[in-house]
Task: inverse folding
């Protein structure tokens, strides 16, 4: 009986992509020296001059493959509602984003989704490319990244994936771990985990990354995103 | 008592694939490949005096796919049909896109150049071929990773080569996620890798570097197995095409792999699943023709910057 209950509970955990409680993190000893050194050496700020921003902007919508979003543009209405709902439930919730480079936050023209765990956000560095961003962060013994892409491009190939649920969640095994892709607000979001040790449980099953996806719910709108949403700067 | 019980349940429930990267049992034993590449021509010299090929590097073994790691069976369905635009003229000796070594899986035959205009990611001469199905690889014929056949033309595509990891572009959904490339000679920590596009180093892993391109669609170029303790970049570094990144090596966590660069191109794509559902996903793009074009430009003396 106990075994059955455990089994059911485990299955529920695996399936509960929409449940924030599913998140659990293990902490094997020995974080990567290389990763830690790289993080320490990295400049915190993500700087963009006007020329570079203009160059990136000029490559959009002009026959470039990045012109088409998953379903025709960011769903700003839902993004704004979810941001406000999140702030209502947790008035201090946006403070975690305050640790990030605000210039990068403000350059990002799509809703930034952050994990609810403030420790992960605090360890992160945000890099913005306008219509794409990526947050590189760490957990003990593992690397994490959280990305958003408003400009995926169409391909003709038949893709061998099996998307799940309303967010079309797909999880891919990589050489280093797992990558999850899913769609919210008509934006392609990805979460990736890479492990220093190949046999780390976080990288050999889907459970950990499903938990990460489930708890990546904090919506942050920087200046460019607010303007695009019609909220002004 | 509790831990063994939970572990047993994990196995019984099949939660995820509890197969470690270097452990497991074979589900398929492909036929041994034919004799590996035959030297057909030699790239012109660069003017440098490269180190001679040597076994100094490391004992063989520990390729990206060890012999006991399971490789899912490839469904008996056709590979992706040829298509796409013909690439620019490539005259150096190379096998066609998707033409994998016999027995090593079904390649991706489409001729689309997914990353046109990139800088070839190794500064000197290089040989694109399999780390697994060539001499010194876990599934290849007997021999050293430094066997002359591994450092000779023609090039061979390795995208979708039979591997245990997922790849949405491959028949059956699993296969090699990038292109394996050997440097000019079989000596580690000597040959520079360089930036394929202008962009920024957005991640430095235990044995990987991610370069995200400034220009849309913001392709991510991933460089694996380079010498991580002597990088020319760090996370956050802005790079231009052709800038040094790190040197080709055999870093692979605790167990070294063969000396090579595993090069991936990733991007967010939208498309249709094999059962007709619209989906957006971060995918591995076939890099072979983009690399072949870039290498030809290099042979023609066209600078990256």
Result:
């Amino acid at each position: 009986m106990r075994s059955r209950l455990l089994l059911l509970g485990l299955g529920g955990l695996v399936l509960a992509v929409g449940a924030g409680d599913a998140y659990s993190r293990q902490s094997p000893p020995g974080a990567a020296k290389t990763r830690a050194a790289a993080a320490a050496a990295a400049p915190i700020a993500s700087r963009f001059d006007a020329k570079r921003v203009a160059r990136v902007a000029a490559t959009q919508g002009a026959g470039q493959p990045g012109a088409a979003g998953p379903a025709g543009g960011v769903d700003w209405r839902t993004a704004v509602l979810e941001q406000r709902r999140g702030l209502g439930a947790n008035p201090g919730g946006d403070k975690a984003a305050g640790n990030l480079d605000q210039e990068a936050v403000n350059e990002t023209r799509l809703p930034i989704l952050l994990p609810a765990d403030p420790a992960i956000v605090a360890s992160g560095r945000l890099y913005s490319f306008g219509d794409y961003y990526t947050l590189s962060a760490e957990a003990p013994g593992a690397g994490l990244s959280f990305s958003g892409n408003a400009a995926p491009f169409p391909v003709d190939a038949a893709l061998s994936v099996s998307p799940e649920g309303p967010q079309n969640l797909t999880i891919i095994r990589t050489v280093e771990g797992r990558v999850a892709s899913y769609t919210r607000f008509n934006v392609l979001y990805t979460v990736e985990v890479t492990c220093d040790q190949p046999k780390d449980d976080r990288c050999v099953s889907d459970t950990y990354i499903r938990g990460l996806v489930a708890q990546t719910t904090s919506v942050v709108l920087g200046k460019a995103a607010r303007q695009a949403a019609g909220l002004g700067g | 008592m509790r831990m063994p019980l939970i572990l047993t349940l994990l196995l019984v429930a099949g939660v995820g694939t509890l197969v470690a990267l270097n452990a497991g049992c074979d589900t398929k034993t492909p036929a041994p490949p034919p004799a590996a590449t035959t030297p057909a021509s030699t790239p012109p010299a660069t003017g440098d005096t490269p180190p001679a090929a040597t076994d100094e590097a490391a004992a063989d073994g520990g390729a990206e796919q060890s012999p006991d790691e399971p490789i899912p069976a490839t469904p008996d369905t056709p590979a992706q049909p040829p298509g796409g635009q013909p690439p620019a003229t490539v005259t150096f000796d190379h096998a066609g896109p998707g033409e994998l070594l016999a027995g090593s899986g079904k390649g991706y035959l489409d001729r689309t150049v997914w990353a046109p205009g990139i800088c070839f990611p190794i500064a000197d001469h290089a040989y694109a071929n399999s780390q697994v199905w060539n001499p010194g690889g876990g599934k290849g014929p007997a021999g050293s990773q430094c066997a002359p056949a591994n450092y000779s033309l023609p090039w061979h595509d390795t995208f979708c080569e039979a591997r245990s990891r997922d790849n949405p572009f491959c028949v059956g959904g699993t296969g090699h996620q990038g292109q394996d490339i050997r440097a000019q000679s079989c000596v580690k920590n000597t040959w520079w890798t360089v930036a394929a596009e202008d962009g920024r180093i957005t991640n430095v892993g235990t044995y990987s570097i991610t370069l995200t391109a400034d220009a849309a669609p913001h392709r991510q170029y991933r460089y694996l197995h380079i010498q991580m303790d002597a990088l020319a970049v760090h996370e956050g570094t802005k790079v231009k095409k052709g800038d040094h990144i790190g040197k080709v090596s055999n870093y692979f966590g605790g167990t070294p792999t063969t000396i090579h660069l595993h090069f991936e191109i990733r991007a967010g794509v939208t498309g249709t699943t094999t059962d007709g559902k619209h989906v957006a996903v971060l995918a591995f793009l076939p890099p072979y023709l983009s690399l072949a074009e870039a290498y030809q430009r290099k042979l023609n003396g066209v600078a990256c910057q």
